[in-house]
Design goal:
Chain lengths: 499, 159
């Protein structure tokens, strides 16, 4: 009952005109960047951080969440009409979606993904509202050792378990953690890795790293392989509306997709790719028309799209209750909280219930806005895809520059942006994931702080990490998650040599 | 699968990454060894750097192993001219802000150079678009957000 009361109170906050406006701006921007190839919600929030610095915290955070949700909706449009998924989370949608569009069923594909996203977003947000208070109660009992162990789990799963190559993922993570060491140590005032350069004393800005890796790196990468044939927009033919048959075939995949997306998103396991692909393969197995898979089966769009949106809501559970980001966008949103001096976690629920519950309530509103924005206005979003690529990327770099200059107008900061951009390019070129680096930069210092706090309490005895049941279990999970991909790879090799 | 890198013995990019990781590890370790402030109880500010350095060493050595096995994924051929245009624009940006040339001029060049790098052949038109974009952003920041972006002679005309 408490939850319902808090949520009702949250709606009171979220329905204030200014909050509604922030929410609308958020979902609008989110859809736009989701549609545009090359920019995603993580980059958009990173670019907006400096701009929103002076605005109302609750409003800005509502806007960020709107961008996150909107990006998930918009990504499907690109995936279906261009066969060029804007985010890895839309990869599964592109498989069947683009086939449907080619077969002249682009309208129903877009409709099932928008309505599926709405259904999934709604259910998952209800899940968030009811799960969050329970987790908060649990989190209150967490000691620094538990938080440290939790962060180790996040480190491992984000970088090693679900990537193509655990080695490359971990390398990206460790470089991120190293960057996080730069600057003045918060507990003692010791300057670390600054080599006498005063600009480095404040550490590496999250915005600079994220914008460099995502925006500048992506621009370099796309330019370097421009020779390949340009993307072609598949025009939407026929009716936008789903037939009775389409509805019949969509509703169950929506629900199953939600069931995959929300829990996996909520676990500190990170990423929307896993649930989308799980949902895709499940639908493929359960589908009554398996022969249609690969030629444009509506189930293959409905399921993954629902999973994708549900996992976005799921990611907010550890972010809000534990302050633990498990995706790049969540990591940047955490930086957004921090710029207002807010620390997500159990304390935030107690100290700023207006803000937290207003944010959760606004997610419901964002969902409604998004389905309205996406169905009738789909023509507008499709037109966005007609922007010439050179202008698009030139514009992205202009906004990247603007964002960096607004935080800190020094040439040193710009040089860092450029360096991170080139690093991002090389990482894309050799298939190193960039998200673990951002997570490492943000979570690294937090993990260090928790570890040192834990060791202060135990007077330097590291066994405290293993003596507490929760932290011991979590570290065990982290260990298994770290070793599993290597062992499985070894098993595969063994099998291959046997054949 | 292309095997040409493997025939030469080791995958060069992987070796290079391994060496770079070891260099970073050395820097982190050296920096930690030079620190003077210690914590009275618990662990001090040097513990984490040493752990990170150790991790980097392991990752660096693993890259050596990978270099002699499968190597890093073979990238597609890169269009270096395109890269140079964009990099050139960004270098100008840094110089322009550093020397007080102002935000609008910097943005004009960044926009034009990036568009050129991405394959457009209308440098002057793009420069004009960049100029307008820079001007609008500067004015919005200055008037609406009360945030003054780096200013040069041009920007001071509007303040």
């Amino acid at each position: 009952m408490d939850t319902l009361l808090s949520l009702l109170h949250g709606f009171g906050v979220a329905f204030e005109p200014s909050k509604l406006l922030f929410c609308l701006i958020g979902v609008f921007l989110g859809t736009a960047v989701g549609v545009l190839p090359g920019i995603g919600p993580a980059l958009t929030v990173a670019l907006l951080l400096p701009v929103t610095f002076k605005l109302d915290p609750a409003g800005s955070l509502i806007m960020f969440a709107g961008i996150y949700y909107g990006g998930m909706y918009g990504g499907s449009t690109t995936a279906i009409l261009l066969n060029a998924p804007g985010e890895s989370a839309s990869l599964a949608t592109a498989l069947e979606g683009s086939k449907m569009a080619k077969a002249g069923r682009g309208g129903p594909a877009l409709a099932t993904s928008a309505i599926g996203s709405f259904v999934a977003g709604l259910i998952a947000t209800i899940g968030l509202a009811f799960l969050a208070p329970l987790l908060v109660e649990l989190a209150v009992k967490f000691g620094p050792w538990d938080y440290f162990a939790l962060m180790i789990v996040a480190f491992v799963t984000v970088s090693a378990t679900f990537g193509d190559s655990p080695l490359r993922g971990l390398t990206s993570l460790f470089v991120g953690i190293t960057l996080g060491l730069i600057g003045i140590d918060k507990l003692t005032g010791q300057a670390r890795l600054t080599f006498g350069v005063p600009e480095l004393l404040n550490g590496v800005e999250v915005t600079t790293l994220a914008v460099g890796l995502f925006a500048v790196g992506e621009a370099f990468y796309v330019a370097s392989k421009r020779a390949h044939d340009p993307d072609e927009i598949i025009p939407i033919k026929g009716s936008l509306w789903m037939t009775k048959q389409d509805w019949k075939r969509s509703w169950a995949p929506w629900l199953r997709g939600t069931a995959f997306g929300f829990p996996i998103g909520a676990l500190p396991a990170g990423g929307a790719e896993v649930p989308t692909f799980l949902s895709y393969s499940t639908e493929r197995k359960l589908c009554k028309y398996p022969e249609e898979f690969g030629k444009g089966a509506i189930e293959g769009v409905a399921g993954p799209e629902a999973a994708n949106n549900a996992s976005a809501a799921g990611t907010l559970v550890p972010l809000l209750t534990l302050g633990l980001p498990t995706s790049a966008t969540a990591a940047i949103m955490l930086a957004g909280f921090q710029q207002y001096g807010l620390n997500p976690g159990p304390l935030l629920f107690a100290e700023k219930p207006d803000l937290v519950w207003g944010l959760i309530a606004s997610l419901f509103i964002a969902n409604v806005m998004l389905v309205i924005l996406n169905l009738p206005l789909i023509g507008l979003w499709v037109r966005l895809l007609a922007i010439p690529q050179p202008w698009l990327y030139a514009g992205i770099l202009v906004f990247a520059t603007m964002g960096t200059l607004a935080v800190n107008g020094s040439p040193a900061e710009l040089a860092m942006l450029f360096a991170f951009g080139f690093l991002g390019y090389l990482m894309r070129r050799y298939d190193y994931p960039v998200a673990p680096m951002v997570v490492g930069l943000i979570l690294g210092p937090m993990a260090e702080q928790q570890l040192r706090r834990a060791l202060q309490i135990s007077l330097g005895d590291p066994m405290i990490l293993l003596e507490n049941p929760i932290s011991a279990t979590l570290l065990g999970i982290a260990f298994i998650a770290l070793v599993a991909p290597f062992v499985m790879k070894g098993l595969n090799k063994f099998k291959a040599s046997e054949d | 699968m292309t095997n040409d890198t493997r025939t030469q013995g080791a995958n060069k990019p992987a070796l290079l990454v391994g060496v770079l990781l070891l260099i970073v590890a050395t820097l982190v370790g050296y920096d930690a060894s030079q620190q003077s402030i210690t914590s009275t109880y618990g662990v001090g500010p040097t513990a984490m750097p040493y752990v990170v350095a150790a991790g980097l060493v392991i990752l660096g050595l693993s890259h050596f192993v990978v270099a002699f096995r499968e190597g890093l994924p073979q990238p597609e051929k890169a269009d270096s001219k395109a890269l140079l245009w964009i990099a050139g624009g960004l270098v100008f940006l840094i110089a322009c802000i550093g020397l007080g040339g102002g935000f609008i001029l910097a943005i004009t060049v960044v926009f034009a150079c990036t568009a050129r790098g991405m394959g457009r052949q209308a440098l002057l038109v793009d420069a004009a678009i960049g100029f307008v974009l820079g001007l609008v952003i500067f004015l919005v920041f200055a008037k609406v957000l009360t945030l003054i972006l780096p200013s040069g002679p041009l920007e001071r005309l509007f303040l």
